Amino acid sequence: MKILALETSTEFCSAALDLEGQSFHKEELAERRHSEILLPMIDALLSETGLNLQQIDAIGFGAGPGSFTGVRVACGVAQGLAYASELPILAINTLEAVAQQLGKPNIIVALDARMNEIYHAAYSKYANHEWKIISEPTLCSPTHAPLLEGNDWIGCGSGFDLYTQQLSEHYQEQLHAIHTGIHPRAKEIAQLAALKFASSPSVTDPINAAPIYLRNKVALKESER
Question: Cα separation of 94 and 186, whole Å?
Fold first, then answer.
């Protein structure tokens, strides 16, 4: 199975190829240059592995939540490549991709959502290396994050980087550890896409691929700040 994956939901831009479990991954701090560097990154991966798009089985992309502009870049490029090569496409939640990167049994993921809010979800790993959603992805303030059962949770993601104290106080003894400096990457998007590709209901027609938006409002009026 050969999976191409794209991830542009944060200030990082990355692309990856998962070839039967062997991973090839490129990443760059892009700031706002995702649309400029993503296609050259994909071309470099294909050149490195000696493949072309027609030899790829499916394309996965980080669908969000994340930067509105960023997730649209990944979605748009994935759709274009999928149409051009008649490939199926898989939309992967970026919160789950962060959990996949850490790989621990019980994980709370919090990504910075700006406006003093976080994108939050909690996962538990179970059979077949799949993730069970314990707390559905949501948008909330750090002090109103969903409460969980148990005391063996590991926190990670940019939300924990920015709001360490608030989230630590909110979960208290429930947090076993906090891992900092973790963000969504195409490498884990590819891994999750490969797992989901085995179950055809997860495969989406390119025309139906869409970003995951948890916030409808992206800017505050002057009077609301």
Answer: 9
